[in-house]
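haha ok so turns out i had the wrong file open the whole time. this is the CORRECT one, sorry everyone. sequence first:
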Amino acid sequence: MSAGPRRELPDARAHELFEVQTRERPDAIAAVHGDQQLTYRELNARANQIARALVRRGLTREGVVGVMTERNLDWMAAVLAIFKAGGAYLPIEPHFPADRIAKMVSRSGCRLILNQSLIETAYEEGHSDGDLRGDTRVTPDQLAYIYFTSGSTGEPKGAMCEHLGLLNHLFAKIDDLHIDAETVVAQTAPQCFDISLWQLIAALLVGGRTLLVEQEIILDASRFIDKLVEANVNVVQVVPSYLDVVVSQLAQQPRALKDLRYVVATGEALKKDLVERWFAVQPRIKLVNAYGLTETSDDTNHEIMDRPPSGERVPLGRPINNVHIELVDEQLSPVPSGEVGEIVFSGVCVGRGYINDPERTQNAFLPGRRYRSGDYGRWLPDGKLEFLGRRDTQVKISGFRIEIGEIENALLRVVGVRNGAVVVNKHLVAFYSAPQPLDADELRKRLGETLPAYMVPAAFHWLKTLPLTENGKVDRKALTALAGELDATEQNGEVPSTATEQRLAAQQVAAHAGPVRAVPGEHPHRGRRHRAAVHATRADAGRRSAVGQAGEPVGELIAVGGQHARPNGEGRSPVGEGGADRRKRGAGVGGQPAGQPARVGPQARVCRSGQGKEVRSVRSGRTRASGFPGRGGRLLEDDVRERAAVAVVSGAAPARRRARPRPRRVAGDDSQA
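then structure:
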């Protein structure tokens, strides 16, 4: 077993430490979003008003409160308010499918949901903006939040974490990334992913500043880099796929990132090739490989690098403060040093389990507050942890038990391969991304040097980028389906063997296979919006629009007929947050009647939103919706109420009205005040 450094934590909750900073530096800038900003005093006042509105409506200890807003300053105030009032925060992405939202609300027992208009109602009700002091007392073991993750059965599972685990992780970031009162931390992740929380509030505990980066800026790597420079950002977190885009942009258009000190990579395996490319363009800025799970209060390991690693893989590093890690075999017995074992966590980081889901909790959470990650790793001689793959990627072919991760690691060691995945379709099929296709025979030869013959894939397919799931991981289901299609095609014709033939075949795949097409509307940290950004920047890093690969058709679907058309529950506008992504209702688009979902045709299209902004996106082969009408997501809220009985925080007639503190306009002063 290995343990992180022992660290004494403050005898206070995260929101209480924020209140301390409010008293010490009330007029310092706490948060910035677009051209708006809030001081510590203003942000705290907003949070207190929302907290009292929640208590007034019956919120009790550990009561679950959903927050269904865009990433803006009111979202930040709502999260702090829930903590202050003793509730448990449940992030609800407003553009998620209604069915998924209903499952989250039902499973979590959520009785209160805050959307944008209802938050504004709370401001207008005249509640005191002073701290709640003795009104509520939040204990270290109290439930802080619930994040839903995808389950293998297709049913989302809600991971519960407590305030002590949250605080431990926040201070791991504060300590290891040297966050203080002069630090600006970029908030980039969508609300539904746990990394969004530390990005949102870590700086507030020590008097620093949070910059909520607008979504349309994240979609454009060039503008994203500009934002980091203009806002004097010191710490930013991205997934490796997006970091790849940023590195490519910096390689084409070098520039100094004078204030940036740490770039944190998480969510996917960080490849050594990408680390080498990063330090080639930014040798001064440290790169952090962060590893952890939602069930363990987010990150549990930090590998802080100032140069590429000497080994073949990028290690996960050592455990953070107060975290214990052991590697075990199938009988849960410790494995010898240097041997491969399943990664098991213990300590304050481990959450309670999955809410109202005893069966899956029992399968993953062990007695003594331990959690089975399902990940395999081994300890390196220097005491750092190395990641080797997932427990659920082990397969059996022709009587041989095969660990998919071992094949993928061998593939990633081939010069030129940037990302890779292996799936099973009667036989092993490898997909890889690289600047250009590699010779299949050469790939077989290279893998055959370290793997037995039965572990060498029968087929290799090159893709510009690998498809990702909504949480930013390689979409193995899409690749498995694609492998089946390609296998059927190859049975009727000659398999492409040369690099040129493979490139042409890959282009044909990209033109016809939906799962590997760029799709607009998700976040670069996770999922489809990330794919759009990656495809767009790799196709032409200099272009300032969220479009797909060169030559791909462009189109946009708007909500029509007073309905938020979201077939299969997908769709999100690539334009700005909040009101900027609302669309006109009425006439149909795409040749469809009003009230019918528009279909994106095969030709390039550009549609204009109700705000007069030109919106570009990439056809996915599916119908898309770019938002929903109504104030603050009312329509979606009604949809949820129809599917799950919830009491939504409503606007009761106020006895008196108190003006809420208005955000200040940023006037170009970047001082921390």
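The longest strand covers residues 370-379.
again sry for the mixup
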